[in-house]
Structure formats: structure tokens, C-alpha cells
Amino acid sequence: MVTETKQPTKWKSGLFSILLWIGITALFVLIIGGFRVQYKGNQAAKFLFGLADGGRGYLQEDWVANTRDPLPVFSLLVRVTYQYLNENLFYIFQFVLIGVYLYSIFGIVDHFYNLKKSKLLLFIFGTLYLLSYSTFWPGTIPTTLHYGVAGQDFGFYAFLPNAFLALLFLSIYQFLKKKPYWAIASIVAACYFHTGYLIIGAVLVTSYLLLEYLENTDWKRIVRFGLLSLV
């Protein structure tokens, strides 16, 4: 009888958490003004290879589409989605990545400041963090807070390879939860979708190795962990 009463409660709790994060993500998307699939502008080439392989129009005859693909895994995702599924899924992918980013950020902050101990504290942090991306603030506050060197940002506004940066935040959160192998898997996935994250991934792995050594001083575990990451 005890098991029968606990299982529905756990199931309902999990469903509530999923619906909560969908709601928070939807609110965030409204705050940033929505997003789009980037088929135009200087980032259109990110989709070129995948759409060409998927048979869109006459793209296969484009000379660029017949050069070496710098992002083959992303192009594969684009091709499979366009050819066998539906282009609208690109919006779903972007929505999920934004949700992963927010989930990771809240998890990281909660790890250090225990937000869950106070609903008021959680609400205040969530509100301020979401609003930090809003154009409600005067001047260039959102840009100053969230843009990096040369105007680089997360890539919320269009589904592009740089949106997989969310997986690096997920990696940090997984490591903090004592799940180092899941942390590595997240880094690997991010780097395969965008090879520009290899350097960031290497820095994160090095940090993980150092922390593992300081906490455990188990050389076999550290070497195994490092070799797996390198492979």
C-alpha cells in the first residue's frame, strides 16, 4: 500500500516539474520577443548543407554546398528534420535548448545558494534573471549583462549551432550533481554540434579533473575520466 501511494505522487511531481519548466521557458521566449529559424542573413549557410542534402530546391547545385561541411552533425540534424520530419521542429528544438539553459542556470544557482529553501528567494531570483533579458530596462543593460566579446551571445533568437551552448551549462550542473560522466556527455554533444566549443569544453574538462583530484586524489579515476573525455 505504501508503494501504491508514493508512485502516483512521484509521477504527478515529475509532470508538474515538466509543465513548470515549459511555462517558464514560454515566458522567457515572450520576454526576449520570440525566435525564428534562420534561413536568411549571414547565418543562412549554417542550414545550407543540410537543406541541400535534404533536396530543397536547387541548393545541391550551389558551389558552397559542395565544399567541405564545417558542421556535419548540425547539418545531419537539419537534413533529417527537413527530409523526413517537419521544418517546424526547428522551433521545438530551439525551445527545448532554451529550456535546458534555464533549467541548468537555476540548478547551478540553487546548488550554491539553495534557492529551494525559500519560495520567495526562488521567485525573486527567477523574476530578476528573466527580466535581465528584457528591453524593459533603460539603455543597454541586457546587452551589457549577456553579450560577450564582439557582440557574441547565446543565440536565443534563432535556431543555430551556437544555441547548443546550453549543453555546456547542463554539463556544469551535472558535474555539480556528482554526475561527471553525464557532464562529459553534454560537453561532447555540444562540441559535435558546434566545433567552436572545443576550447571551452577543454577548459571545463580540465576544471573537472582538477576538482576531482582535490576531492578524491584517485589517480586511476582521474586518468580514466580524462582519457574518456579526450576520446
Structure description:
The chain has 231 residues and is mainly α. It is 66% helix and 0% strand. The chain has helices at 2-32, 45-53, 72-84, 89-113, 119-131, 141-146, 166-176, 180-193, 198-216, 219-230. The longest helix is centred in the N-terminal third of the chain and has 31 residues, at 2-32. It is globular. It starts with a helix and ends with a helix.
Features of this protein?
231 residues, mainly alpha, 10 helices, 0% strand, globular
Summarize the helices and strands and which ones pair or pack.
Layout: H1 2-32, H2 45-53, H3 72-84, H4 89-113, H5 119-131, H6 141-146, H7 166-176, H8 180-193, H9 198-216, H10 219-230
Helix pairs in contact: 1-4, 2-3, 4-7, 7-8, 8-9, 9-10
Shape: globular
Q: How many helical elements?
A: 10
The SS-based structural class is mainly alpha
Poorly predicted ranges? none
**Helicity range:** 55-70%
Strand content: under 5%
Radius of gyration: 20 Å
Biggest sheet, open or closed, and with what strands and sense?
Answer: none
Give the termini separation: 48 Å
What string, H for helix and E for strand, traces the elements in order?
HHHHHHHHHH
